[in-house]
Automatic annotation (TrEMBL), chains A, B:
<comment type="similarity">
    <text>Belongs to the HAD-like hydrolase superfamily.</text>
</comment>
<dbReference type="Pfam" id="PF13242">
    <property type="entry name" value="Hydrolase_like"/>
</dbReference>
<dbReference type="InterPro" id="IPR023214">
    <property type="entry name" value="HAD_sf"/>
</dbReference>
<dbReference type="InterPro" id="IPR036412">
    <property type="entry name" value="HAD-like_sf"/>
</dbReference>
<dbReference type="GO" id="GO:0016791">
    <property type="term" value="F:phosphatase activity"/>
</dbReference>
<keyword id="KW-0732">Signal</keyword>
<protein>
    <recommendedName>
        <fullName>Phospholysine phosphohistidine inorganic pyrophosphate phosphatase</fullName>
        <ecNumber>3.6.1.1</ecNumber>
    </recommendedName>
</protein>
<keyword id="KW-0460">Magnesium</keyword>
<dbReference type="GO" id="GO:0004427">
    <property type="term" value="F:inorganic diphosphate phosphatase activity"/>
</dbReference>
<dbReference type="GO" id="GO:0046872">
    <property type="term" value="F:metal ion binding"/>
</dbReference>
<dbReference type="InterPro" id="IPR006357">
    <property type="entry name" value="HAD-SF_hydro_IIA"/>
</dbReference>
<keyword id="KW-0963">Cytoplasm</keyword>
<keyword id="KW-0539">Nucleus</keyword>
<dbReference type="InterPro" id="IPR006355">
    <property type="entry name" value="LHPP/HDHD2"/>
</dbReference>
<feature type="signal peptide">
    <location>
        <begin position="1"/>
        <end position="23"/>
    </location>
</feature>
<keyword id="KW-0479">Metal-binding</keyword>
<keyword id="KW-0378">Hydrolase</keyword>
């Protein structure tokens, strides 16, 4: 299992996806994936730098981190790179006033922004807020804009919760893109600028960083596009058919985060 | 206005879209477009053949025709080509057992079909049935199939109701296509086989038929692909920007169905 891991000897930092790597999310708050909390502690004890890079948009970063701490993870808000704060910066820079179609618990991330007379739509994983009425409202606002601007917090296809697979924000993004004949701007993985922000927070150049995630396209493909190595875990939304993906091949597969950390630490 | 209509002299039959041409739909049952009921009567009196070709899937063909008769239109069930009966034939031919994500009022069109252990998903304009829960259910069934089969009753982007624009089935089709990495099979306009069925019922070859619709892609583009001439009315979902469509150009624009019939009958 350790043959072919020579490249891991120069690693100085790890970027970890959260959902499907640290824990499986769910309406009940979710459950940790076996060995993951201990793996995070081992990374920190090893002296490797650590940053979490998530597309989670069902909660503010503060509440999300609090939940993960409650599940036994030793992580802080500053260690999490998430789409909503990045989108907030982008909206401010461009003077955009958003209409939000997001989860109720995410709304406060955008508290500082003016939302009157919206000139763009921000789409997150709105979950139960993905109603027929809300989708029609977002659509009507977009189609009524002279130049529709749709900002999507990630473009995931689906994710796994404890009660089964759920459609992710990317599916709804595609619906609005098609209806309005626009292309969304994605803030979150796999956007290069988002990985670059996470690497800047990690403080390590891409060739000395490894991304570990369960999503073949958004984690593995996105990180590799930035010049990083990337591992796919066989937890979370991983499916055996991912191993035949026509375009993306991870640098290695691991059964879970604990195994990845075992192997990486053995190379150092 | 009549220059350049010489080709209309050989016309023997008309295919008419319904929503946005005969009437504007809405929760209140909808309202006829001025002059359209009279235009239908004039077509019939002229001896031209007439067939209605709709992507309507919010009601059975029987109930839809009854509603239109109530709005003053002299039409019968046999004069309407609609996606649900066509999909039903296709499902039977291929021995498919559908999971339906359609409007409640359409379900009875599929009464004859076995629906246990579904091996395909049939998507119509489900309107209020486009809930988060129903979309997740359809998604989970598809992603769980060895070879997912998604059949979409039309692929319209949006349509106009009396209270505003609504997302059409095509937007939800795109969401499921993306999430499951499949390509839907479209039964309805603009599919060539659907126009061919309508022409067969009209009993006129494509070069002697004219399609009249409000949808630049699904009505005009689809009919032209079949070798028909096609007019776009400036009613229903028509928007001025349609006149700059990068790929589709109607053979002529008309303000409404009544004007189209006026001009066509003058050529004969």
């Amino acid at each position: 299992a350790m043959a072919g891991w020579g490249w891991a000897r120069t690693v100085r930092g790890l970027l970890l996806d959260i959902s499907g790597v640290l824990y499986d999310s769910g309406a009940d708050g979710g459950v940790p994936i076996a060995g993951s909390a201990e793996a995070v502690r081992r990374i920190k004890a090893s002296g490797l730098k650590l940053q979490l890079c998530t597309n989670e948009t069902q909660a503010t970063r503060e509440n999300f981190v609090r939940k993960l701490q409650g599940l036994g993870f030793d992580i802080s808000v500053a260690e999490v790179t998430a789409p909503a704060p990045a989108a907030c910066r982008l909206l401010k820079e461009r003077g955009l006033t958003p209409h939000l179609l997001v989860h109720d618990d995410l709304v406060s991330e955008f508290a500082e922004l003016d939302k009157t007379n919206p000139n763009c739509v921000v789409l997150g994983d709105a979950a139960e807020n993905f109603t027929y009425a809300n989708l029609n409202e977002a659509f009507r606002l977009l189609i009524g804009m002279e130049k529709p601007v749709l900002i999507s917090l990630g473009k995931g296809r689906y994710y796994k919760e404890t009660d089964g697979l759920k459609l992710d924000v990317g599916a709804y993004m595609k619906a609005l893109e098609y209806a309005c004949d626009v292309q969304a701007e994605v803030v979150g993985k796999p956007a290069k600028s988002f990985f670059e922000s996470a690497l800047a927070e990690l403080g390590v150049p891409p060739e000395q960083a490894i991304m570990i995630g369960d999503d073949i396209v958004n984690d593995v493909g996105g990180a590799q596009q930035c010049g990083m190595r990337a591992l796919q875990v066989r937890t979370g939304k991983y499916r055996p058919s991912d191993e035949n993906h026509p375009k993306v091949k991870p640098d290695a597969y691991v059964n879970n985060l604990a195994e990845a950390v075992d192997i990486i630490l053995q190379q150092l």
